Amino acid sequence: MRADRLMAILLLLQQREQLTAAEVARELEISERTARRDLDALSMAGVPVYSRQGRGGGWRLVGGARTDLSGLTAGEARALFLVAGPAAAVTPALRAALRKLVQALPAPFRGPARAAAASMVVDPQRWGTSRIDRRPPPRFLDALQDAVIRGVQVRLGYLDSTGARTDRTVHPLGIAAKGQWWYLVATTGTGRRTFRIDRVTSADPTGNPAHRPGDFDLAASWREITDEVDRRRNPLAITALCAPQALSRLRMVVGDRLEVGTAARDGRIEVVIRGYNEYALAGELAGLIEWLEVLGPPGVRQHLAQIGTALLKHYT
Hints:
Blueprint: H1 2-15, H2 21-28, H3 32-44, E1 49-52, E2 58-61, H4 74-83, H5 92-104, H6 107-117, E3 120-123, H7 141-150, E4 152-159, E5 165-178, E6 181-188, E7 191-196, E8 200-209, H8 218-233, E9 236-242, H9 247-254, E10 258-263, E11 269-275, H10 278-285, E12 292-296, H11 298-315
Parallel strand pairs: 3-5
Antiparallel strand pairs: 1-2, 4-5, 4-8, 5-6, 6-7, 9-11, 9-12, 10-11
Helix pairs in contact: 1-3, 2-3, 4-6, 6-7, 10-11
């Protein structure tokens, strides 16, 4: 909501010669105190707004209200679109405002602004769970994002999962965050790769232009990457029928590894559950036997039967 308000205030200042804090408060339906705090925040962030004191005073953009927003520097325009681009949790109305605003920028700023808005995607959930973690960004995040926006190749020093160091030249395509980890999506001589940024030991732009496919979409590419990682982490899929009233319980047990299908003739819901191995899946689902019928694979059904036999032996 704060990003929404700051963008709305900037658009209001663009449209009008001058605004008071009281007028901003009325337009955005917020308190006058909040309006003053937001105006001060814009000024402190480097956006070229200033306050005129006294009778007839108010807040203005440097140079007056100009539709081309030429008071913004290239860096400020990029920063604005990073704050409220696809990486931010903002409303559809703000997205529409951004599309209009990019046309109002001076022509030399439009490309970098669009690149900034499309340079990052944030997925706060950890791998394999719905838990959300946050940690400080890694050391080379800003340098790599700058290379994405400017569209230049980077000489990358990198430590792999075994601790072995490699050096290579990559073509940066975008930055993605998954839970607490940040990743660089890039193309290399062997195809598209993903690099964990906390393992980057050096990042030196070469100045040479990066090759970026014309149809590349970071959000779509990241979905493909995460889907592939999830398939590798959970290669086994079982099919089952679940009573409708137990779907929420099943989701509590298996989380995002649950795919809900259509209703069967008897009213139960067709589901697919992914996991690492048959025995582990059987152990997870054994407590839901009252509402869940596993259809396959046969190995999971066999493990469930063995678990049932052991339970009868111990507790009958």
